[in-house]
Amino acid sequence: MGGLAGVPAADEEYSAKDFTSDQEVRWCPGCGDYAVLAAVRGFLPELGIKRENTVFVSGIGCSARFPYYMNTYGMHSIHGRAPTIATGLATTRPDLSVWVVTGDGDGLSIGGNHLIHALRRNVNITVLLFNNRIYGLTKGQYSPTSDQGMVTKSTPAGSLDTPFNPVSLALGAEAGFVARTLDSDRAHLTETLRAAAQHRGSALVEIYQNCPIFNDGAFDVLKDADEKQRRLIQLRHGEPVTFGPEDERFGVVRDERGELRVAKLAEVDERDLVVHDAQRADTSHAFALSRLGGQDLDPTVTGVFRAVDRPTYDDQARQQLDEAAQQRPADLQQLLTGRDTWTI
Amino acid sequence: MVATNGQRTESDPEGQQPDTLRKVNRVVIRFAGDSGDGMQLTGDRFTSEAAAFGNDLATLPNYPAEIRAPAGTLPGVSSFQLHFADYDILTPGDRPDVLVAMNPAALKANLGDLPAGATVVVNTDEFTKRNLKKVGYEQSPLETDELERFTVHRVAMSELTKGAVAETGLTRKEAERCKNMFALGLLSWMYHRPTDNTERFLREKFSGKPQVAEANLLAFRAGWNYGETTESFAVAYEVEPASLPEGTYRQVTGNLALAYGLVAAGQRSELPVFLGSYPITPASDVLHEMAKHKNFGVTTFQAEDEIAGVGAALGASFGGSLGVTTTSGPGLALKSETIGLAVALELPMLICDIQRGGPSTGLPTKTEQADLLQALYGRNGESPVPVLAPRSPADCFDIAMDAARIALTYRTPVLLLSDGATANGSEPWLIPDVSELPDLRVSFADSPNAPDGSEEFWPYQRDPRTLAREWAVPGTPGLEHRVGGLEKLDGKGSISYDPDNHDAMVRLRQRRIDGIEVPDVPVEDPDGDARVLVLGWGSSYGPIGAACRRLRARGMPVAQTHLRHLNPMPGNLGEVLRRYDRVVVPEMNMGQLAMLLRSRYLVDAQSYTKVAGLPFQAEELENVLSDVVQGVEL
């Protein structure tokens, strides 16, 4: 059963314009959020579901303005709590496609608890985590994904925190679907969002996104054609994990300790290459891939790390209700009366 | 009248009655033992027996926050007090006429509450040197004159129980655990209780363990027979059925009645109910109960924390369910930001706070009503929320229905303030006829509503009477819209930072809540010449009412009124307050309602407060009020 099963099909052809609200978009010029917004508006018509059955829920932060710009149902809620609201909505409404838009501060700091619990619970929601490694809306404090040592207004002597790797975190919570993509790669972004929407259960897509004001250039190495080619791994299910320019290809192999490492393709036996399997129930393969690249983006692993079907919380909760209704009619008078009564 | 044993007899001065069955009007019994002794179950069963017999009753469970405090110690004492009578009573009783003490700790912890002449039934087997030492007794109180003011029955309950159940082949330890049923059997004999229901209950409770069921039944009957055959219990007592209004009754606790009210609200509104909750004492039983009723379209969600519980409830409300969350004071503090969001979104939601002693973790298992100001004002910004409080366990049902009415009619989160005593206490409930319950059906928006003819949907367009906005749920074509915590332009609902709009919206949200229809508050003043009004809210209704009865019986006129709606307050309240020379406001907090009344109505309300984790006693309020009444008359 796909992620959109139960959501009514559209009886008209939509375009991106149909998903565009009348609100003026007010992100800073050059913000990576524009690219994500355009990609989402552009690919939603492909899903073929009714617009009115699509809901975007957000928390607080720059990314949280996203629902205002979508001509769907939407809620701009409070800081970090969007997964909780989405959980109640998705559990009670199987006919909706529910999206959560969050950021590295909203989703990983103040809302970290809700995020991991939504993922482990496997509610049928799709979480877009815009990661710009900085607090934007509060004007430039370090975030849970900022580089250690980063100098910001709140850390003039350098931040001391160890950053989260959002993909590793989601896999640790045993999310059924975990992926990473870039705001600057429209095709890959769209392809990844499509796969996330089709997945039934909690899906997390980390999107590297540039903040031109407070952390400009954080992902520039991935925009430089040569550097991108040298660093970027695009995972493909069932294919060996290789990357790099034609004249210097790399591959991922398992070393003698069982850990993954990058090796020059020319120097390894092709049979030793790690073949990506996104459907493994065990999370350790996907987790090991997520550890390959760190804050330094060298390499940067993108694509779908994990896409494993398991029963969703909301499907099972509704099933319990259906079964109870079949077993016992809802007789309110009988419930209120109970068994031990007396009459005066 | 008070007989030597402390119980109130109808007639017959002490000692004049030759028979072995004596009629009394009312009795207060307290079962006390170790946390592991099953005192709550024992009390609960005796309550059911009294209810089945048709007595009016009220109960007060009192137990420690620790699940199993060290055995035999004072902190580990758990008790259950039950008041039953042949007339309508209002409280679980101030002082027990009968104390059943299963060990020295239970005796010591409760002795101070006993009036002279009370009956004490002790389990002598537990009065060992070691147990006595644990609670600081140098010498057994059974051997000193410490208990000389009481009628003491020394019963070797542990040994008698073991003997009675020996044939079942249970181990000695298992056998001894049945001693609470021995005590129940003995008290059931003393008060002529019907025993069929208890026997049936035991068979069902232990249906998977026939040996244990049999042992409990044997212990129960052994206790009964012990009373019947032992000369030390020469007299049994009878409390006749009470003459309550006609109808069919059952016994309910406050949390049960609240859960039923929420289920009923879902049925009468024809909306799915979604309860998002996180376990917390003393509210968890509502979650447990609601989880049983999935066949009524009730979804229960045990969230990762308090915030997620209310967040999920709000998400469900956004989707067209009746969203509910249940909690206690510390949890309400965590939920406040989300309640504020619900205020801004103008969506229906119920928040049930079963208050307990605070601040912080406070007294989880004890009662208090100190969350009133938190409920009214514990959010950022001007954030008005309707607040209701049940006055007794059975009233929780009606309050839940009324809270749902307000939430659905006015599209607002509503706070319901129960408390530990109401939640765990029980009383008879006149079972309502479902067809006569209020109709709570709502209609969702289904078409564009823009007044400018633009065929748009404006989410903050309002009903001119209730000022409620339309509820357009996702899935409705053409009404796609966005809501959120940022200030909205009235009508259109888009984000607005306009100063005048914000001012207008703040006042509008206040006006919508102020305009909620709540019934006028009735005043009870049977003689019509009272100059003192006593006003309370929540669970103090019982003791205040009992105190007023006592004063009137002494020829002292006093008027009583009780607030079930704390926001908005009833329209006639100001006039009622000004009618009296003195207004006394007893509260289990530091005077929160009194402060509100003084500021809002400019009346010199006199606050009487107690924050001891226990309900008021009728006697203490009687004393307080009689001083006031006498002061006025001088």
From TrEMBL, chain A:
Q: Which CDD domains match?
A: TPP_OGFOR
Asked whether the UniProt record includes Oxidoreductase among its keywords, one would answer yes
Q: Which GO terms describe its biological process?
A: cellular respiration
Output the Gene Ontology terms for molecular function.
Answer: magnesium ion binding; oxidoreductase activity, acting on the aldehyde or oxo group of donors, iron-sulfur protein as acceptor; thiamine pyrophosphate binding
Q: Which residues form the signal peptide?
A: none
- Residue intervals of the Thiamine pyrophosphate enzyme TPP-binding domain: 60-207
Q: Which domain of life is it from?
A: Bacteria
Q: What keywords does the record list, in alphabetical order?
A: Oxidoreductase
* UniProt name for this protein: 2-oxoglutarate ferredoxin oxidoreductase subunit beta
Q: Which InterPro entries does the record cross-reference, listed alphabetically?
A: 2-oxoacid:Fd_oxidoreductase, THDP-binding, TPP_enzyme_TPP-bd
UniProtKB/TrEMBL annotation, chain B:
Q: Write the record's keywords in alphabetical order, separated by commas.
A: Oxidoreductase
Disordered: region residues: 1-23
Q: Which residues form the signal peptide?
A: none
Q: Where is the Pyruvate flavodoxin/ferredoxin oxidoreductase pyrimidine binding domain?
A: 273-488
The entry lists its GO molecular-function terms as:
magnesium ion binding; oxidoreductase activity, acting on the aldehyde or oxo group of donors
InterPro entries attached to this UniProt entry:
2-oxoacid/accept_OxRdtase_asu (IPR022367), Pyruvate:ferred/Flavod_OxRd (IPR050722), Pyrv/ketoisovalerate_OxRed_cat (IPR019752), Pyrv_Fd/Flavodoxin_OxRdtase_N (IPR002880), Pyrv_flavodox_OxRed_cen (IPR002869), THDP-binding (IPR029061), Transketo_C/PFOR_II (IPR009014)
Q: Which SUPFAM superfamilies match?
A: Pyruvate-ferredoxin oxidoreductase, PFOR, domain III, Thiamin diphosphate-binding fold (THDP-binding), TK C-terminal domain-like
List, for all copies, the residue spans of the domain called Pyruvate/ketoisovalerate oxidoreductase catalytic: 36-223
Q: Does the record's keyword annotation contain Iron? A: no
GO biological process annotation, one example: response to oxidative stress
Say if the entry is tagged with keyword Oxidoreductase: yes
Q: Which domain of life is it from?
A: Bacteria
Output the Pfam families linked to this UniProt entry.
POR (PF01558), POR_N (PF01855)
Under the heading NCBIfam families, the entry gives: OAFO_sf (TIGR03710)
PANTHER family registered for this protein in UniProt:
2-OXOGLUTARATE OXIDOREDUCTASE SUBUNIT KORA (PTHR32154:SF20), PYRUVATE-FLAVODOXIN OXIDOREDUCTASE-RELATED (PTHR32154)
The protein's name is 2-oxoglutarate ferredoxin oxidoreductase subunit alpha
Q: Which organism is it from?
A: Actinopolyspora xinjiangensis
